[in-house]
Design a protein that fits this description.
- This protein has about 230 residues and is an alpha/beta fold.
- The chain has a single domain, classed as NAD(P)-binding Rossmann-like Domain (Rossmann fold, 3-Layer(aba) Sandwich).
- It is built from eight helices and seven strands; from the N terminus they run βαβαβαβααβαβααβ.
- It starts with 5 loop residues before the first strand and ends in an 8-residue tail after the last strand.
- The relative contact order is 0.14.
- The model has no long low-confidence stretch (mean pLDDT about 95).
- InterPro entries: NAD(P)-bd_dom_sf, SDR, SDR_fam.
- It holds the Pfam family adh_short_C2.
Length: about 230
């Protein structure tokens, strides 16, 4: 008998996180969704899954999500970490408080749920963790300074985690979206993309679904750009 697999989506109430939850459910995963807005609970109900209203900045909320997921489904096979938007300002004008907020939004949003979920994956001898990051990790953009700094840190964290738990068959990869349709569109940004269009949340979700699949079983510690060619760095 095949095992019914379970995907946990953090910050999955809207945008790319919600698209990932929908795609994973369509691929046969049971889904558990955390969001602060309540939209995640509604989406989970629609998908026949489990929804929790809470914050990815709260260890208690994340622990509640994990506990309820294990109670209902008995396992956690995939963890998708999405998130919100951090502070933006000229780099010398960013306060200490804003830097700390950026770390919460762009780095600890992964560290916290991984610390809670990964031990279960190690126990199961298998799991896939996919973090939604940004295409500008390789070419930092002053428009998004806190994102650029802390998601560079996330790339390092991902490599260390991947190397540490590869032998346990627990993988971690980052998806690096470029300009996606969940963001406000401008002609200037669109014109800078070789494909001359914004990407879609569904395209990001499809990449996440691949990284969660058995077909990606030999991929870990990687940063996968999904940006229409906007970043040219190797």
């Amino acid at each position: 008998m095949s095992v019914e697999k379970v995907a946990v989506v953090v910050a999955g109430g809207s945008g790319m996180g919600a698209a990932a939850a929908k795609r994973l459910a369509a691929d046969g995963f049971k889904v558990a969704i955390l969001s602060s807005s309540g939209k995640g609970e509604a989406l989970a109900k629609e998908l026949g899954g489990l929804g929790v209203t809470g914050s990815n900045q709260s260890n208690d909320d994340l622990q509640r999500l994990a506990d309820l997921t294990l109670e209902r489904f008995g396992r956690m096979d995939v963890l998708v970490n999405s998130g919100g938007h951090g502070p933006r300002a000229p780099i010398l004008e960013i306060t200490d408080e804003q830097w700390h907020t950026g770390m919460d939004v762009y780095l600890l949003n992964v560290v916290r749920p991984v610390r809670i979920v990964a031990p279960q994956m190690v126990k199961q001898k298998g799991g896939a963790i996919i973090n939604i990051s940004t295409a500008w990790v390789a070419e930092p953009n002053a428009m998004f300074p806190t994102s650029a700094v802390f998601r560079a840190g996330l790339a390092a964290y991902t490599k260390i985690f991947a190397n540490t738990y590869a032998a346990d068959n627990v993988r971690m990869n980052n998806v690096l979206p470029g300009w996606i349709d969940s963001l406000p569109a401008t002609e200037e940004r669109r014109d800078n993309v070789p494909m001359q269009r914004y990407g879609t949340s569904e395209e990001i979700a499809a990449t996440i679904a691949f990284l969660a699949s058995e077909g990606a079983g030999y991929i870990t510690g990687q940063n996968i750009r999904v940006d229409g060619g906007v970043i040219r760095a190797l």
